[in-house]
Design goal:
CATH class: Mainly Beta
Low-confidence stretches: 1-16
Helix content: under 10%
Distance between the termini: 49 Å
Strand content: 35-45%
Number of domains: 1
Order of helices and strands: HHEEHEEEEEEEEEEEEEEEEEEEEEH
Number of helices: 4
CATH topology: Jelly Rolls
Mean pLDDT: 92
Oligomer: single chain
Radius of gyration: 18 Å
Number of strands: 23
């Protein structure tokens, strides 16, 4: 596979202030391999997370050679055939749009297994990677086996798909899908996970990929540290990505623009422990220890 470009639309990104220019990654038009954006430790300035986003047409293929990386292959939209190690799957995919309802199917690929995917329809595909951990599995997780959680209340209500949470076996990677109705907030109240202090907090780099039910939609992402040495607010559009190397990171969806984002996280240890910004802890209205399944809320 030829070298992957680091980002698209450099003229747009260059107009942003320094820190925001680094954290906000705009999507480009698909290149010959269908790549619209790519983040890795070399261009992100972090240690663990690599994410490549592809927009593929029917028959178009992508591949990854076997190496020391654990991978997560997500067909977010459309359908594809996927081969990884001894796993061979046809018709992987659950929806035409991320807003159609079901969770995305998950293909987890152990270090040492190669990957090949061929699009069977127009497809939006994410390949995420991190250095392999102690657990090494290649497996398929069907949409019906993924927990759908209702989190928050009122203007902080949102829906979470636990694509690969820490209750599911994997070596390093963690992934969620989050649906934020227009007018609501998520990743809320603001929290951080940038310090390795078990069991209170885990150091996790985090990647966000956004979609909006109306393509002209936008959202507001803030990333800030307690001392404000990092404090950036960014307007994100459809298929934009944001990097969260450290700090608190709330997201708001303006009225009328339902939002989706994919979260991918990894760090030195696979744990999801976080610290709420004490200034906003009074807004905490959900329990990470006891997620509410959507069916329980609707019962």
């Amino acid at each position: 596979m030829p070298p992957i470009p680091t980002t698209g639309s450099p003229s747009d990104v260059d107009r942003l202030p320094g820190a925001a220019r680094h954290l906000l990654r705009r999507a480009a038009s698909p290149d010959a391999d269908g790549v619209i954006s790519h983040v890795d430790p070399g261009n992100a300035g972090w240690d663990w997370v690599t994410v490549t986003v592809h927009r593929l047409v029917p028959g178009q293929a992508l591949s990854r050679e076997a190496d020391n990386q654990e991978r997560l292959v997500l067909v977010l939209e459309g359908r594809a055939s996927v081969s990884a190690g001894e796993l061979h799957l046809e018709g992987v995919g659950s929806r035409a749009s991320v807003f159609d309802g079901p969770a995305a199917p998950v293909v987890l690929v152990a270090p040492g297994d190669a990957v090949r995917l061929v699009a069977q329809t127009n497809a939006l595909v994410v390949v995420a990677a991190a250095p392999g951990g102690a657990t090494r599995l290649t497996r398929y997780i069907a949409p019906e086996d993924i927990l759908v959680e209702a989190r928050g209340e009122g203007n902080t209500a949102r829906r979470i798909h636990h694509l690969l949470d820490t209750q599911m076996e994997a070596g390093r990677l963690i992934a969620f899908e989050v649906y934020t109705p227009g007018g609501n907030w998520s990743s809320y109240p603001p929290h951080k996970h940038d310090t390795e202090n078990p069991p209170v907090e885990a150091r996790l780099e985090e990647y966000y990929l956004y979609r909006f039910a109306r393509p002209q939609g936008f959202g507001l992402q803030r990333v800030y540290t307690a001392d404000r040495s990092l404090d950036e607010s960014m307007a994100v559009g459809d298929l934009d990505a944001v990097l969260v190397p450290e700090g608190y990171h709330p997201f708001g969806a303006p009225a009328g623009y339902d939002a989706y984002y994919l979260n991918v996280m990894a760090g030195p240890n696979r744990a999801w422990h976080f610290t709420i910004d004490p200034d906003h802890a009074w807004l905490m209205n959900w329990s990470p220890a006891a997620p509410r399944a959507q069916e329980d809320v609707n019962a």
